[in-house]
User: What shape does this take?
Amino acid sequence: MGKLIILLGNLNCDMLKPTPGSASLIKTTKELNLNQLIKSPTRITESSQTLVDVIFVSSPRLVVNSGVIETCISDHFPVYVSLKLKTDKSPPNYITTRSYNKYDPDLFAIDLASNRDRLVSIFRMDNVDEKLTIFNEIFLNTLDKHAPVKIIKVRGKSCPFITPEIKASMIKRDQLHSLFRKTRDHYDWLNFREARNFTKTALVNAQKEYVLKEVQQHRNNTGSLWKVIKENIAYRERESVVYSKEPKLVAEEFNHFFSTIGVNAAKKASTLIQDPSVYPARNLSDVNRTDNSYPEENDRFSFTPVSCSEIRNIILAMPSNKSPGKDKVSMRVIKHSLPVILGPLTDIINCSLSSSSFPIAWKEAEVIPLLKDGNHEEASNNRPLSLLTFLSKICEKVALNQFGSYLMKNKKLSTHQSGNKKHHSCETLNLLTGDTILKAMDGKLVTALILIDLSKAFDSVNHTFLLTKLSNVGASPSVVKWFESYLTGRTQSVRIGSTVSTPLPVSYGVPQGAILSPLLFSIYTNDLPSSVHHSKLESYVDDSKILLSFTVANVDCLKQQLEEDLYLIANSCSENELLINPGKTKYMLIGTRQNLQQLPVDMTINFLNETITPVSFAKDLGMTIDSYLTYDQHITNLVSSCMNSLCQINRVKKCFDKEALTLIVSALVMNKMFYCSTVWSNTSSTNIKKLQLVQNFACRIITNIGKFDHISPGLRELNWLPVKEQLLLREAIMMYKCVNELAPHYLSDLFTKRSEIHQRDTRSHDSLQIPLYKTSAGQRSFHYRGVTLWNDLDIKYKKLDSLKTFKNELKRNMLEQIYK
Assistant: This one.
């Protein structure tokens, strides 16, 4: 809707008690993105106190203060809210960037090629830093002539669609309004109203024509098209911040904080566990699924020279719209100059890999502070966004491709780690978690789920420990030496607007924003899953969780087992200088309503001197999980978020044609709505109906179908399956991946073909073995749903040899069946 909404009054729903009325009110207002401000009782009697007078607002950021005024005038206390409806004008903001106003890619390439003799001299050098110095000198000096670095004032949004005629109309409108205010004459008001309406219509039509023209012009360029879209959709813009101190002083303070945050976290983590001998070690070979045997020397990994064609493919695959590093060289410019620089750049990268030396110039990072929450002048309230040069990322990509392939081929990474692996995703790990819990529920077990929060995990990686772990997974001495050069000697500076701090060394952590960092962190924590004794630990990069299922009869043992495993995890993290934040660690008990009601009232556990109480729901890898695994809260949040996006799109839909609107809705709403859908598609029919209403609204926005008109023609026009069928299609696609080894082994191994059990050739020879689940909980698992769905599919779809063909053919058939 995009407007400020305030709902207030006595609604006769006590917000202090979980009554059906209050629950329904909270649910409805949540879906409409309304926030309740009043927290204390508004009516107090001798025997009761209730909160029935409420204030809901759609924009809490505008609230200065709110509360209750206790007075004897009435038995209901007055409630109030103060809003900040006028914002102060922000001072001008300046940035340092390259000016491409006079940049011509062809002229730049020709000018660069005139230095070919000097570029060829790079091949005759032996030192990689000398090679890169010559390369940068030639490349940057040439680029400075065509796209110089300038300090530019950031201006507000331009309105290129406003023509001189429209400006004249606006001036006339304002003059007529001024005249009416003086005369208060009825005819002057009619003249003003006519001019106002004419100007408004002209503005709307001009904007629509301009945007449609831009969309048509950039239809084949996704990056440029999204730039047009973002300029015309009401995103919440990041407000420019004003500092009370000089920008240079702020930049220096922030840089000192960011450059030492890793070492400080590591020091705190190393003292977290005072006595590592509380729980004796034991043989963990049955728990750890990682092959930690040290390879023979001839089986160790070494880098191999890379060809020019490989470097070309890596560069062309990189996005062109990412922010450049300290040198302000964009990927777009590198692609323009590729014919000239490809040979020298390939030689520099090969020299780096063969000499085990990462160039010093590629170790400099520029950090931009982004406000998370709270006071922007506090460095701890900001998130550091590290910008590295694109040339360094090309070299990293080469190392990642080669070393990553070796690790996957030799199964050196723990199967308990789902981050940054082929065929793995948040969805596959959430499927594993959900099926583990549902299988336990089918066996009348309750599952304890603990989501562990690591603070500054990437920043506190100890380089010495990491290099040892790299050797343990098979890196040769020369490769370990290259990684040592890559990690050490790094510097960073913080940029506030156009002001840059003095560079400071960074002695801990893996580089933020670097291509190799996720893989290095996975190697660093590769042995973490083996630390637990009773539970199972699963991770997605730095997000880890443990699961432990138990019977209600054995609940007395749960506390001891969980605390022992948590201690062992904390001990392992402490030894590796990784800091756990027990205050943000979430603890849930998930099971059937009957089993959960039988648990004792006090189910708290102790973790690092803090008491952790079970919560009713928590967010895990983008999904909200509740105690009964119904996903009700997840759907409520999803509907609220999607409706908010659709309202914003609806306000500006007149500026886009149908094709562009479809693209916008699919990217901003549908992708969000169906995120991890195979996990929660077993939710109630009531929740599916809510999502169907969201899809219907999206369809009406694109096709202009009336509010009371039937939606099926619109869905057919867009080739959209209804939500229920779309969920089935996505489940079928995931099943195709599992059956054809395009999914993680922990999912693929769930499914067994009947032909592997029975040798007789029957009609069900290629069907999957149906798992024996006794309750509806087990039958809600993806294991059971997937097998049932796959066995019901026509054999012609199962035989298709590509995922893309399978998806297209099955969707086409489903559309024909629904809209025939």
In short: The longest strand covers residues 364-371. The mean pLDDT is 88. Residues 725-819 form one domain.
